[in-house]
Request: fold
Amino acid sequence: MYKDVVLPRVLEQVVNCKDEIAQYYLMDCIIQVFPDEYHLQTLETLLGACPQLQPVVDVKTVLSRLMERLSNYADSSPEVLPDFLQVEAFAKLSSAIGKVIEAQVDMPVVGAISLYVSLLTFTLRVHPDRLDYVDQILGACVKRLSGKAKLEDSKATKQVVALLSAPLEKYTDIVTVLTLSNYPRVMDHLDAGTNKIMATIIIESIMKNDTCVSTADKVEVLFELIKGLIKELDGTATDELDEEDFKEEQNSVARLIHVLYNDEPEEMLKIICTVRKHIMAGGPKRLTFTVPPLAFSALKLVRRLQGQDGDMAGEEVPATPKKIFKLLNEIIEALSSVPSPELALRLYLQCAEAANDCELEPIAYEFFTQAFVLYEEEVADSKAQVTAIHLIIGTLQKMTVFGVENRDTLTHKATGYSAKLLKKPDQCRAVYACSHLFWVDDQDGIKDGERVLLCLKRSLRIANAAQQQANVTRGSSGPVTLFVEILNKYLYFFEKGNPQIASSAIQSLIELIKTEMQSDTATPDKASDAFFSSTLRYIQFQKQKGGLMGEKYGPIKV
Reply:
């Protein structure tokens, strides 16, 4: 009765009354008053009346409310979903929206997009499995936006963001969204600022849902979507950006790079190459944020491939450590355009360590050479030099892959640079750190007691010179911290069984420190006094412990 008599008569009255306020009110009444199942069965008749209303009637709100009611109906009673399919609700609504947009030529963009948002919300709730419907709606939106400049209207942009965010919220798995061919085309219509906001929303969705994007093709699509964060769009200069915001954006890209993963080494290498292609186009300012995560992603892959090299069962293996190290070298070299020598140096040393674990001596040596070249030519700041030389010494000490000749060359370089640091205390600390290069506490590690002693004596000379320098310039010799630090190194090697470190040398060093502390020119310093007395307590403790160690410490008097 409703279908054949009531609705057609009511709609006839509505269309004929020609009063836009009455038409809007009456259409709203029909939608709100009659039950949902009635609307579902008479959808065609109801929607057929919409294009016949006065042009000024707000049809989009009428349709939005109808779709909202139907969505809630589908949500509340899942058993009615077959009815929606039976009456082809999506096709009818989609066609009605198309007709309304065509009929109302001067409908603003925001109105059209808000209709698509309502239709998309309806589709995601009623037909979540029909990705083709979702893509169709996005395609219609692209068609409506095509031929227009980038969206400037903030209301319209908000609607587009809502349109693009809806699938992300529904399919918590971004991989599903990446299959929608029209998704990136809608994003292209956003202005640079909103494009970035949308890119950030996409990355946040991936992080929140722990999504794994695991193929190079999907990574390609994903990086196309977030290109607003990766490179300049439409000539927007990076300088215009707030520094804090820029850092936050780039850190989110860095986090994203860390979660791209595939168990297959070949596919993982393809992913790394895809990411590299995109980030290298981002300009030098972004590289300091994006190169490290990519380098560590490649290093992780190297660790997985450790021990596999060259041909396996006579076949050419696409992903080998050598290949990845070559790629790493190129990735890190890109930092020279920034320039960021300290960061590049750290990454070279990380690669050297990985090459050492893969037992690739020539590659490890090459990475060390690169690190030394950077140190010589690029690292000028004295504080940065101190940090860099300690990093080099620490990494070199862990290297087991080098033959005698290569190790000697690198060790010689490291000790040479240590002695050339600007400030005497820095020189002293770097030189005594070098002593560890000649004594590695492993079973088959290098144990060259004589050169250890040479390093320690040299650092003592430098500490003496530092004291005298302080005497001349300040009239006081400064605290004795350096001497106490060297004493601790002597004790370390003494305990490790270095035959060159005699108890008499330790004894005379203790006497020297006591004399220095009592001299008139010494500057009282609580920290170095406490350090010295702790060291003496330690010696006393070892003496009392007995056994072999107690015997060793016996001759030392404190």
Summary: The chain has a mean pLDDT of 87. The radius of gyration is 37 Å. The chain is about 70% helix and 0% strand. Residues 449-474 form the longest helix (26 residues).
